[in-house]
Amino acid sequence: MQAVSRAASDGAGLFLSFFFRLRDRGLKVTPQQWMTVVEGLAKGLHGSSMIGFYSLARAVLVKDESELDDFDLCFAAHFEGAADFVPAIEREVMDWLSQPIPPYPIDPELRRLLDQVDVEALRAELERRLQEQKERHDGGDYWIGTGGTSAFGHGGYHPGGIRVGGQHRLGSAVQVAAERRYREHRRDLVLDTRQLGVALKKLRSLKREGQAEELDIDGTIDRTARQAGELELVFRPPRANNLSLLMAMDVGGSMEPYRHLVDVLFSAAHAARHFKRFEFVYFHNCVYDHVYEDAAFIKAVPLRDLIRRFDRDCRLVLVGDAFMYPGELLDRHGAIQWEDRNEEPGVVYLKKLAAHFRRTAWLNPMRERMWEAPSVCIVQQIFDMFPLTVDGVESLAKDLARG
Amino acid sequence: MEKEFDRFSGTKRYITSAELRHAVNVAAALERPLLVKGEPGTGKTLLAHAVAEDLGLDLIVWNVKSTSKAADGLYVYDTVQRLQDSRFGDKDVSDIRQYIRLGPLGRALTADGQVVLLIDEIDKADLEFPNDLLHELDEMEFTVVETGDRHRARQRPLVIITSNAEKELPDAFLRRCIFHYIQFPDAELMAEIVRVHHPALDKKLLAQALERFYWLRDLHGLRKRPSTSELVDWIGALIAAGIPPDKVSKEIPFLGALVKKPEDEEVVAREAGRPPRTRNMWRGR
Predict the structure, then answer these.
(1) CB B165 within 8 A of CB A192
(2) Could you tell me which chain B residue has the CA closest to the CA of A264?
(3) Lowest-pLDDT choice from A81-90, A191-200, A299-308
(4) Interface contacts A/B by beta carbons within 8 Å
(5) How high is the pLDDT of residue A362?
(6) Mean pLDDT score, A160-173
(7) pLDDT over threshold 50, residue A50
(8) Beta strands in A46-167 (DSSP E)
(9) Is A148 helix (H, G, I), strand (E, B) or coil?
(10) What is the pLDDT of residue A147?
(11) Which residues of B fall within a CB distance of 8 Å from A36?
C-alpha cells in the first residue's frame, strides 16, 4: 500500500497540468474537486491504472453529461503522448502481476486466469497496444472491437473485483476517452426534444393564481392567534407559471434544411406544458398583413387580430433563418408570396410586433457565422437574435423570463 | 482497504457496466453522494435498490415531487395537528416531539446502522432544493429547531441521487457529488440484461430482436425512443406468442409494446421498408 500512496502524492503534481487543461477548456473544476481526486488517489481508488484514474477523475470532476465530451477530449489530448509516466504505470501493473501472492482478495476463477498469464507476452501485448493507441487516436472515432482487451484489460483495470469475461471493452483510458462516446450530450449542439424542453423550462414567472388549495401555515397561525386560539385554516393558491408564449415559425424555402430542428423545438415547446398559454403561427420569410394557423398557409389570420388576441405580456418568439432578399424586408410589394401584396415594407410589420409585445426574441437555426447576411442584420436591429441550440434557447428563455 | 472499496459488484437481477460499479464504489469510499443521470429506462432508480440488496443494507426512498421541500425531508412539524389537538384539550400538546415526523433524510440520519438513501428525481423539485440539502449531506447531522434535539448519523448513509435533467442542478451541489451518466446499454450489455429477465430465450430470437430494437432507436424523428423495459416487455410478448426469429427480421410484431405514440408508429411504418443501417447498430446509445 505504501507504493500506492507514494504514487498518489507524486501523481498529484504530475496530473496537476491536467487540471489546468480542463479549466482552460472551460470546465469549471475547482481546487476542492481536485483535492477530492487526490484523496481518491491516496485511497487507491484508481487501482493503480490509467483507466481507473480516468473514471475516478471523471466521476469527481465532471458534473454534467454535456461536459463529458470535453473531458474526454482533454484526457485524450493530455495523456495521449504521455510517454514519461506510462512506463511507470506499466511497471506498477507488471509488478503486481508478477507477484505470486496478490495483495488483493481475488476470486479463484480470476486467480486461475492470472496464473496462466505470461508476463513477457503481456508486456509485448501492452507495447503493441500503446502503439496502436496512437493510431486510433489519430484515426478519430473508431469503435474498439473485442479483440485486444484480454489479459491486459483484467490486469489494468482495478484489480480487486472485475469479472473475467471482458464485459466492458476497455482498451486504455486514452482510447476510451478518444472514443468520445459522450459527444451527443454536448450542449452546443441541438439534439433532442428533451434537452430543448429543459431549456424552455427556464421561461417562466411564478405567481400565485387560481384555486386556493394550499394551506398557508403562517396565515393560519396569524389568524388563529388573532382569534385567541379559535382555529381558522387559511388557504392560498399554489404558485404557477404566469407566462404565455406565442411562437411564429418561418416555414418553406430556405428553412427546409432546418425542418427537423424546428420540429424538435416545436415538440419541445408543446411538451413543456408549463406555459399558461402556448400558441403558434406560421409565416414565410417575413411577417406581413397575415400570419397562418397552419404550415400550408390556408388559414390566414390578420396581423391586427393576432395582436388583439395576445396581450403585451405574452412572450413572442419568432423562429426563422431571416435569410432572404433584403427587398422582402425593405420594399413595398416585396413579399416573396405574390398574394401577400404588402402595402408597407416588411420591417414595418416586424416593428409592429416588436412594439406590441413587451418581450420578443428571434431564434435562428442558421449557424452564427452566417448571420452577417444583410437581411439577418436588418432583423437583428428589431429583435434580439439567439441561435437555435440548447445554449441559445436557454439564454433566450432566461432573457424572456425577466419581467 | 481493497475489500472496503470494491463493495458493490452488481446483483443477479441488475446488470451494470464496470464504469458504473466503479462510480458507486468511488462514491462509497469518498463518502460523497452519487448523482446518477441518464435516459429514462436506463435503471437509475433500480441502481439504489441493487446497491442496497448487494450490500445488505436497508433502503430509504425519498421520492421528490415538484412540491417537495428540503426541510420536509428531515422532519415535518405538524402544527395543524397540534393546533387541532389544543382546541379540544384531550391531549397533552406541550410535548412537541409527538408532532415531529421524520422525513426520509431524517430517518436515514437517525438510523441505527448504515442505510442506502435514494433521493429519486431530485430535479422535479424547486431549483433551490438541492442547495438546501448541502449542509445535511456534508455534515450528516441536523437539529430539530422546535425541540433543540440534535441528530447525527452514526454511520454515513450511502446517498444515491437520480436526476432526469428536467432542471439544471446548482453548481455548489454538483461539486460535492460523484457524477455518473448511465449510457444507454450497447447491444452486448443489453443481451445480458435481457437474459436476466428471459433466461430461456432463444439466441437467434434475441439477436433478431436486438437488431430490430437498435434499428428502431436509431430512427430519425421518433418522439420517444423505446428503452430497456419496453424491450424486455416486447421480448416477453414475442416469446409468449411463439414468434419465430425470422419473422422479427421481416416485420415488427407487437409494435405497440415498443412504440407508444401514434406519430411514432407512422415514422416506423415509413422507415420499415428501408434496409437497417448496420453500422450504427452496435454502437451504444
Answers:
(1) no
(2) B221
(3) A81-90
(4) 119
(5) 93
(6) 38
(7) yes
(8) none
(9) coil
(10) 35
(11) 30, 32
Please name the helix (run of DSSP H) or strand (run of DSSP E) that holds residue A382, with its range, or none: helix A374-382
- Does A158 lie at the interface with B, CB-CB under 8 angstroms? yes
CA A283/CA B76 separation, integer angstroms: 53
Count the neighbouring beta carbons within 10 Å of the beta carbon of residue A123.
15
Q: Does A104 touch chain B (CB under 8 A)?
A: yes
How distant is the alpha carbon of residue A181 from its chain centre? 14
**A65 touches B: beta carbon within 8 Å:** yes
**Contact call for B83 and A224, based on CB within 8 A:** yes
Which residues of chain B neighbour A225 with C-beta distances below 8 Å? none
Best residue in A60, A162, A241 to probe B by mutation, most B CBs within 10 Å?
A60
What pLDDT does residue A379 have?
Answer: 92
- Class (C level, CATH) for A242-401: alpha beta
Could you give the 3-state DSSP secondary structure of residue A123? helix
Confidence grade of residue A85 (pLDDT, cut at 50, 70, 90): low
Pairing status of strand B149-152 against strand B158-163: unpaired
A315 Cβ contact list (under 8 Å, min separation 6) = A203, A243, A244, A245, A246, A357, A359, A360, A361, A400
CA B282 to CA B215: how far, in whole Å? 10
Q: Do residue A158 and residue B183 have CB atoms under 8 angstroms apart?
A: no
Q: pLDDT digits over A90-115, tens only?
A: 566 566 555 544 445 556 666 666 66
Cα A94 from chain centre:
40
DSSP string covering A189-255: S---HHHHHHHHTT---EEE-S---EE-HHHHHHHHHHTTT-----EEPPEEE--EEEEEEE-SGGG
Instruction: Sort out which chain B residues have CB atoms less than 8 A from A43's CB and list them.
Output: 1, 5, 29-30
Section A42-57 average pLDDT: 83
Crossing angle for the helix pair A259-272 and A193-200, nearest 10 degrees?
50
Q: What percent of chain A has pLDDT over 70?
A: 64
Q: Give me the sheet containing B58-63, strands edge to edge.
A: B58-63, B115-120, B158-163, B34-38, B178-182
pLDDT at B173: 87
Q: Report yes or no: A161 at the B interface, CB cutoff 8 Å.
A: yes
Q: What is the pLDDT of residue A181?
A: 63
State which residues of chain B have pLDDT below 50.
1-3, 276-285
Give the lowest-confidence range in A2-6, A204-208, A219-223.
A2-6
Q: Which residues contact A45 (CB under 8 A, 6 or more apart)?
A: A52, A56, B5, B25, B26, B29, B30
Q: Return the axis-axis angle of helices A31-42 and A2-14, rounded to nearest 10°.
A: 160
* pLDDT at residue B102 in the model: 92
Domain boundaries, chain A: 2-185, 212-240, 242-401
Residue A213 binned pLDDT confidence (cut-offs 50, 70, 90):
confident
From chain B, pick out residues whose CB is under 8 angstroms from the CB of A30: 175
Side chain identity at residue A150, one-letter code: S
CA A63 from centroid of its chain's CA atoms: 11
With a cut of 0.90, is the ipTM above it?
Answer: no
